[in-house]
Amino acid sequence: MPKNRDTRPLPGRRPGRWPHRLAQRVVRGGWAWAQRFGAITDEHPGRLRFGAIGTGTRLAFPQGTVFGEPWIQLGAHCVIGEQVTLTAGLMPGLDLGPDPILRIGDGVVLGRGSHVVADTAVTIGAQCYVGPYVYVTSTNHSYDDPAEPIGKQWPRMEPVEIGPGCWIGTGAVILPGTRIGRNVVVAAGAVVRGEVPDHSVVAGAPARVVRRWTPGEGWQPPLRTPAPVPIPEGMTPQQLMALAELESDTGGT
């Protein structure tokens, strides 16, 4: 009678593991290829024909919903994350006239999953950094008629302007009619509407000013932490890494 064959796996090996690893490599390699060649740039705009797209600007793959691109102007050296929606007009195929509707300045960063919905003028100033899943819209639903479903009532539209140098935290909502000044911090999750002065911090829903800088008084209320030490001019990345290692070894003293 033949002896039973030992079918136990060898130590350190699991049955069927190499097909799984091979599939992982194929999928990850294909996804990396798609991310590289699916990105939109000024040199390779693909099917999208923006009114303007500056040098060095890149829309990561996969893109979110994009339409009305002839009325969208993107500045230079912008970074648009994955699944970011950029729309001009209520729906595709509309003639929106001679002027741009959505203007995004130089050096703007839009985080993953953010939406910028411009049914009327929306402007995002240069060097604004927008976190993930931020919603900026120039349109709001109406609910004047209590007998009609809200989604069927004609919306209200008001321009939105975000000044240069702002930081918009994760999950913030910028509503129609908002005008944000320069170098403003919008806290994560804030819901902003109305005028926001320069050099201020707003938080909450609805958002309110919780801190503001003026030339005469500085920051009020005062900042609770000291300002970071600026990087000395001319310092190389290698020197910065060596300095970081030294601070780590000495415990930051």
UniProtKB/TrEMBL annotation:
Gene Ontology cellular-component terms listed: cytosol
GO MF annotation: an example: O-acyltransferase activity
Pfam families associated with the record: Hexapep
Keyword terms: Acyltransferase, Transferase
InterPro entries per the UniProt record, alphabetical: Hexapep, Hexapeptide_acetyltransf, Trimer_LpxA-like_sf
Signal sequence region: none
Family of this protein: Belongs to the transferase hexapeptide repeat family.
Name of the protein in question: Acyltransferase
Organism this protein belongs to: Streptomyces uncialis
Organism lineage: Bacteria, Bacillati, Actinomycetota, Actinomycetes, Kitasatosporales
